[in-house]
């Protein structure tokens, strides 16, 4: 890969990588640092990257792995989150008073709820609903079965809707 | 209107099942925002739209390329450092290697000096012992055999030794230790004039002892003669009685 390809094909990915990094690391500062490190890493390996490879997917994978590595080795490792431990969200119909006091609007509430979701849930919503990738592309990036992506996406969207309805009691008629 | 509503509901159901395509989601989004009524989907899509706006600062590229340039320079410096250790430049003395060489050279030189000094010391002390023992034995035998010859020998030794002992010329004296022909010569300065006097007196003492032995032998002979004569006189006296 020539230097010009790095600027043309990899560098435009920086904001996607940045948003993904925020979802993993939690803060803009840490995410910016992680994106910078990821791009330097890709630049240093540019001679080994094939011209016709999926650079976009590759950049996202490298960024995610780099962020997860940082998370493992730094103070970001606040708590281990997995899907099983988050089943309470599906059964519970309430939001904790702490969370209730923290958020300012629906977007803020969703942001706070998303932070407590398992990493895989957050990644799927991020790549599908925010970055606009297809289920197949997301499955490829995350190394999952397409059906797993679809089921997880469904659960996450439904869960978000459930929390919003419980909070705002939308006075609308579905019909 | 009915068709639109059906389409909206179907799309929404598909959306919550995770089965919509990105294109269908765009269509759903436009339908959601057509309505003014608040819905959870509206909040959700609002959130997604606000998230899409998050971007890096304008100076990110500048900072990134500065870091890339820095890492490039470091890489070049690393290659240069690597070249410093290639055989191409190894013909010039390496300061570290030079220091190691001198350290071992000093050690080797010190060891050689020590070994040489030890050999010299032991050979000297052995020679000294052998020569002093030889000298004592020879003077003893010579004294007992012939006092006159011993005196002559002592005289000649005195001349030789006095010539050979040179306190101010150690090199000369040390050479004499290795002179096989002059095994009897005392050349060590430790065996100075006092030792020579002691040797001379010892020789004289041996001469006196030898002389006294001679006298004693003579007296014994006389005594035996006297004893035997008195016994004969006594025997003859018995006849007279």
Tell me the series of helices and strands of chain B, N- to C-terminal.
Answer: HHHHHHHH
Content-based structural category of chain B: mainly alpha
How much helicity do the residues of chain B have?
over 70%
Number of helices of chain A: 10
Main β sheet profile of chain B: none
Unreliable runs of chain A: 79-93
State mean pLDDT of chain B (0 to 100 scale). Answer: 74
**How many beta-strand segments of chain B?**
0
Query: What gross morphology of chain B would you assign?
Result: rod-shaped
Largest interface: A-B, 41 and 33 residues
Oligomer: heterodimer
Report the radius of gyration of chain A as a whole number of Å. Answer: 18 Å
Shape field of chain A = globular
Distance between the termini of chain A: 55 Å
* Percentage of residues assigned to helices of chain A: 55-70%
Account of the 3D structure:
The complex is a heterodimer of chains A (about 180) and B (about 240). Chain A is an all-alpha fold and about 180 residues long. Chain A has helices at about 5-10, 15-25, 30-45, 55-75, 85-90, 95-100, 105-115, 120-130, 135-140, 145-170. The model of chain A is unreliable at about 80-95 (pLDDT under 50). The N and C termini of chain B lie far apart (about 195 Å). With about 240 residues, chain B is mainly α. Helices cover about 80% and strands about 0% of the residues of chain B. The chains are: A mainly alpha (about 180), B mainly alpha (about 240). The interface of A and B includes residues 35, 44, 126 and 133 of A.
